[in-house]
Design brief:
A: eight-stranded mixed beta sheet, 25% helix, globular, B: alpha+beta
């Protein structure tokens, strides 16, 4: 009797689909049909499969991003928790530099606060004080999110599998200590060539960007890849996501933190 | 020819009774200029009852607000001393038609301002800046109106709450603003939403008052306009506007 062909591993299939879309720049179909409805663990397993491959290929992980930090976005996707993705060194764009459109997939922009750690967060039962003690400084940031899934047709499963819809990120260059800024109350305004396109404040990110960072730190301990000294955390949007097109000039100003810019090439 | 005084009585009576009325534009054909004349006449009825003018309010100063209302023009209204709600006080829900709260900043003037003025001249006339909440309450059914209707109805102004006054040496261009109801944020924004910088709203207030043959007076309060969309109030709500650097202001709604 002939042997039945081995059933393809759905995790591998989904991971390959996303990796190919990322490499080719051609968006793919959603991956949600490959795993069980609501199976967040499977979605993270897909993300992890690509993380393993990308690191083997030489990409350097430099931190994490927290996504779905706005109550309204969580409601849209029918979840009650944020998600995370990996930041790689090759995702960085320096302040004011031109962003090459070939590096983008269906980009949108968000104004955020980045936190940089100078201590490991490896303990069980991490507290807010552990986190505050471990933050070296904050920076204003622009996250340029993207999706490998065609037309952003995503559910929570698709975005988690797709490295939390991460794209590129731009950091401001003046480090500010936590004692100098009111992370909950700080105002955020994002302009595109001088027109306001997104407005918010620190509280829009899970009530306080530190809440998002603490959720992340605990989650990372749970999944066995804790945050370490030197890691950058993109904590989540302070206002609505805005569309972006070639030729646009995005500037984010955060009260107490200064500003950061991204220039989108034609 | 619009009957200014008849329309003024309709909106004034509706405001006093807290009763919804049909849009004036349903029965009357009137211009924006005539709408301001109605507002002025309705406010004179308040003055005749012993109220005093306490200042001016600006409306539709944020993009969020314009989108919410489907309008694009800046509008203004008049504040009377009777409309002031003390910080921490309770308002009686039944006195309003369908009240909403907007997080704002307020300017206290130390000298008169006549427009047109530059932003620098406007700022030089400011004695102090406070976190503030405007209680807006359109007297029209379902909060639906034309631009002329809202202007005639004192630009929906019905109450204002002022927090502690701060010296005007704070950079107010991008202060985080949080409208909280019962301890939960319901609107999150920044003072940048007020025309890019709230002092521009004050300069516009001076210009518009002067166009109407009036001027902003020393001691007046100018409400700069909402930094976010307005939030509909319910009985029992405890409402607070927290502003980065400036502090907070709040009131409660009777249950």
């Amino acid at each position: 009797m002939a042997k039945k062909p081995a059933k393809p591993d759905p995790i591998k299939t989904a991971a390959t689909r996303i990796r190919r879309a990322a490499a080719s720049g051609k968006p793919c179909k959603p991956i949600r049909d490959l795993i069980k409805k609501g199976d967040l663990d499977a979605a993270y397993a897909i993300q992890q499969a690509n993380t393993d491959i990308w690191i083997k290929e030489g990409r350097r992980p430099v931190g994490r991003k927290v996504g779905l930090t706005a109550k309204s976005v969580q409601a849209q996707l029918g979840v009650d928790q944020p998600d995370f993705g990996i930041l790689y060194a090759d995702m960085e764009v320096v302040d004011s530099d031109e962003v090459d459109p070939s590096r983008l997939m269906q980009p949108k922009v968000e104004g955020e606060i980045a936190l940089v750690l100078d201590d490991d967060l490896v303990d069980d039962q991490l507290t807010l004080v552990d986190l505050i003690d471990s933050v070296a400084y904050a920076l204003p940031a622009i996250e340029i999110v993207g999706s490998r899934i065609a037309n952003w047709d995503i559910t929570i499963l698709d975005t988690i599998a797709d490295n939390a819809s991460s794209g590129l990120y731009v950091l401001g260059t003046r480090p500010v200590g936590l004692h100098e800024i009111d992370l909950r109350m700080c105002g955020m305004v994002m302009e595109n060539k001088g027109d306001q396109v997104s407005i918010g404040a620190g509280a829009a990110c899970l009530g306080n960007p530190l809440n998002a960072a603490l959720w992340l730190a605990r989650k990372m301990v749970d999944v066995g890849m804790p945050l370490l000294a030197g890691d950058t955390i993109m904590t989540g949007a302070l206002g609505p996501m805005a569309p972006v097109n070639p030729g646009d000039v995005i500037e984010v100003r955060i009260s107490g933190l200064g500003s950061v810019r991204a220039v989108f090439g034609q | 020819m619009a009957n200014i005084n008849a329309m003024a009585k309709i909106v004034d009576d509706a405001a006093r009774a807290g009763k919804a009325i049909p849009q004036l534009s349903a029965k009357h054909d009137y211009t924006l200029e005539e709408a301001y004349a109605v507002q002025s006449a309705a406010f004179r009825r308040r003055l005749a009852r012993g109220e005093k003018q306490a200042g001016m309010k600006m409306g539709f100063t944020s993009r969020a607000k314009m989108v919410q209302m489907g309008l694009e023009d800046l509008v203004w209204g008049r504040l009377s001393d009777e409309m002031l709600v003390e910080d921490g006080d309770e308002i009686t829900f039944d006195k309003y038609v369908h009240p909403r709260a907007e997080p704002e900043l307020a300017f206290l003037l130390k000298k008169p301002l006549e427009g047109p003025v530059t932003a620098a001249e406007a700022l030089a006339a400011v004695e102090a800046i406070a976190p503030a909440i405007e209680i807006i309450d359109s007297r029209y059914k379902n909060f639906k109106f034309s631009l002329e209707d809202v202007v005639a109805d004192n630009s929906s102004s019905s109450g204002f709450v002022l927090g502690a006054w701060n010296k005007p040496d704070i950079d107010i261009s991008n202060l985080g603003m949080l409208l909280e109801v019962n301890g939960r944020p319901v609107q999150i924004g920044s003072s940048a939403a007020i025309l890019g910088h709230p002092v521009r709203s004050l300069a516009h207030a001076a210009r518009l008052a002067t166009q109407a043959g009036e001027s902003l007076e020393a001691g007046w309060v100018v409400m700069a306009g909402g930094a976010t969309a307005a939030h509909a109030l319910s009985p029992g709500d405890y409402v607070r506007n927290m502003v980065e650097e400036l502090g907070f202001v709040g009131f409660s709604v009777s249950s």
